Amino acid sequence: MNRNKMIRRWTPGALIALACVVAPVPDSSAADDEFAALVKRLVAEKPQFAERQRNLLAERYDLSDRPVAGVAMSRGKPVQAGVRVKLPEGITWDQLAALTPEEVKSRNLWPAGLYPLPHPHHEAGGMVFPKLLIDETKRQTGRDLTRFDLDFDLPDHLLPEFPAPIYLTTRPDLGDVSQGQLVTLANYYELFKDILNPKQLEGLRLLVTPFPQQQFNATDDRRSLRAHEGVTCFDCHANGHTIAATHTVGDIRPNEHRHRIDTPTLRGVNIQRLFGSQRALKTVEDFTEFEQRAAYFDGDITLAAKKGVNPLERGSQVHFMAEFEELLDFPPAPKLNVLGKLDPGKVTEAELRGQELFFGKAQCAACHTPPYYTDNLMHNLRVERFFTEKMINGRKASADGPIKTFPLRGIKDSPPYLHDDRLLTLEDTVEFFNLVLQTRLNSVEKADLVAFLRAL
């Protein structure tokens, strides 16, 4: 009998039975052994890479806990003071600022802390969360965001306050609506059921719902010990703000050129027109959808399919999430008037001088225009003018390319700074731009400019 005719006579059940006999049965114990071997290897390597990153940070920065007297974030966490970037031996910031980019490069004087900052383990990459967030998320929901292969690298005192307050554009009268809690799937409904409409509430639910991600999923190449539900948008953007969780950007290859990502705040996304530090996505809906389909999986669509990509429906889910995101307001700034400038009756002389510098000699307003202190454009600072390319802990220090202008409203609440966390304080940021823009501010002018930035 013709073999094809014979097969057509068999029932579906018989064919399934035949397939079970003919096809090899996956060996689950072998898969477990492979995962166990992966865990064993990466756990053994972890101390080596952790020490490498600690040494780099100690070489670059003063990491001590030195708060500014009388200056705090919105819920009271002290703001850290002073320049933390260490200078090459035998040179001052003023001497460095007097040199041309060519002279800085030829004499190898670019400070170590102003080079791009690598990921805690740049070759491995992926999402890494501070312990504060890991502990509270686990306490509330049981999800463990610990990675067995690496830990977050920056000290807690240099991070944004946690949990951060939440301000809504629709209800400014309520102030902080988080009630001092980290918003998760366990408490979002009770906190927001009476202040959001049903569509916004559903959007928030999706923002605190875990979905599979590259390192946190159920496959045997994950970086969590147990099979994992995944991560939420609000794991990185804790309370719609940030806790400085980091990652490596998904749209650059090879890996050595990928940027460490500073998770930006979602406060004020309603006034922004570009999303993603370099991708220039044009709406928050675009960004929300992109994150789920690609960024969660390092831009690898084949791995996304394997690990459980969650393609959100644009007209309802994505739109609902975006509608809630666009309610997130900047923190109050009592020293600013309705045009975003200082109210002379409420400020110090130093803050007023800093404002004059911001709009004048320091050239900050060329990109950061009031009232929200962004121009919604991208700019290329060409920092590579100052140094020769080199490898730093798996990250090639080279041209960054154009980066979007982030808003400066509420900036004191969002350390560390720049797109890759390389600047730990506002003083570091002023020194960086004084060099890059060659504005040659003196020490008093720098202090005044920092005072103004803290008032925004």
Strand order of the largest sheet: 1-2
Low-confidence stretches: 1-26
The geometry reads as globular
Order of helices and strands: HHHEEHHHHHHEEHHHHEEEEHH
Count of domains: 2
Q: Any chance you could write out the topology, listing elements then pairs?
A:
Blueprint: H1 3-9, H2 12-22, H3 28-60, E1 67-72, E2 78-80, H4 93-97, H5 101-106, H6 131-141, H7 188-192, H8 198-207, H9 233-236, E3 246-248, E4 260-262, H10 284-293, H11 301-307, H12 314-325, H13 349-358, E5 378-379, E6 390-392, E7 395-397, E8 403-404, H14 426-436, H15 443-455
Antiparallel strand pairs: 1-2, 3-4, 5-8, 6-7
Keywords:
456 residues; mainly alpha; Cytochrome Bc1 Complex, Chain D, domain 2; 2 domains; two-stranded antiparallel sheet; globular; disordered N terminus
Q: Could you describe the 3D structure shown?
A:
- This protein is mainly α and 456 residues long.
- It has two domains: 60-119 and 335-455, Cytochrome c-like domain (Cytochrome Bc1 Complex, Chain D, domain 2), CATH 1.10.760; 131-325, no CATH class.
- The protein is 34% helix and 5% strand.
- The chain contains 15 helices and eight strands.
- The protein has helices at 3-9, 12-22, 28-60, 93-97, 101-106, 131-141, 188-192, 198-207, 233-236, 284-293, 301-307, 314-325, 349-358, 426-436, 443-455; strands at 67-72, 78-80, 246-248, 260-262, 378-379, 390-392, 395-397, 403-404.
- The strands form four sheets. It has a two-stranded antiparallel ribbon with strand order 1-2. Strands 3-4 form a two-stranded antiparallel sheet. Strands 5-8 form a two-stranded antiparallel sheet.
- Strand 6 and strand 7 form a beta hairpin.
- It is globular and about 65 Å long.
